[in-house]
Automatic annotation (TrEMBL):
GO terms for molecular function: hydrolase activity. InterPro entries: HAD-like_sf, HAD-SF_hydro_IA, HAD_2, HAD_sf, PGP-like_dom2. This is HAD-superfamily hydrolase, subfamily IA, variant 3. Gene3D superfamilies: HAD superfamily/HAD-like, Putative phosphatase, domain 2. It comes from Cellulomonas flavigena (strain ATCC 482 / DSM 20109 / BCRC 11376 / JCM 18109 / NBRC 3775 / NCIMB 8073 / NRS 134). Keywords: Hydrolase.
Length: 213
């Protein structure tokens, strides 16, 4: 979700900086970029090391509340993302949202979009990305073999999770330039992805759809 379908990373970064500075610490945009795709428990440990004297649950509540409010104010779609979801839905392709964000953050987006058959959030799995459990859980709830799925990912942890699950994967370079394995497809934007792309990737092709320069 975050960074792949909607551009919420600036919301997370702003919330993180505000939280750490409120406790007398320093949190830079570079620190925030390094945490993209991390689970909340992992992120919370970093904040605590920077002086945030709160529990993991309290940190999660503060960040989630801030980002949820921003999402509720308007969905900041990534280029091509809304069109991709609609095209897949119209073609009868089941879709799962697999996000490290908690349900409290994901629900406004999920409710507004109304196109997901399954939603797996960071607070319903025991092992978070980069572990494959989130994607394996999604495939199980969809009732399909994970190897028949195509996953879109924009973070290192998410990419590792999707690859480890056995799904076909398209790495989306957005806030972080990924270095995917040789058997992973790649794009610079979902604006370059369509139904034919999914069919080719699902069939085993490895595509490079990046627009460089």
């Amino acid at each position: 979700m975050d960074g792949t379908l909607i551009d919420t990373e600036p919301y997370w970064m702003a919330a993180e900086i505000e939280l750490v500075e409120a406790h007398g610490g320093v949190w830079t945009p570079e620190d925030a970029v390094a945490l993209i795709g991390s689970s909340m428990p992992v992120a919370a440990r970093h904040f605590q090391e920077r002086g945030v004297d709160l529990t993991v649950e309290e940190i999660a509540h503060a960040l989630n509340s801030s980002v949820r409010a921003a999402v509720e104010a308007g969905i900041p779609w990534r280029p091509g993302a809304q069109e991709v979801l609609r095209a897949l839905h119209d073609a009868g392709v089941p879709q799962a949202l697999v996000t490290s964000s908690f349900a409290v953050v994901a629900s406004p987006f999920v409710d507004a979009v109304g196109l997901f058959d399954v939603v797996v959030t960071g607070d319903v799995v025991e092992r978070h990305k980069p572990h494959p459990e989130p994607y394996l859980t999604a495939a199980r709830h969809l009732g399909v073999d994970v190897t028949a799925c195509v996953a879109l990912e924009d973070s290192r942890a998410g990419l590792a999770s999707a690859v480890a699950s056995g799904a076909r994967v398209v790495a989306v370079d957005s806030h972080v330039a990924l270095q995917p394995p040789p058997d992973v497809s790649r794009t610079s934007s979902l604006a370059h992805v369509d139904l034919a792309t999914f069919a080719r990737v699902a069939a085993g092709e490895v595509l490079d759809l990046r627009v460089l320069g």
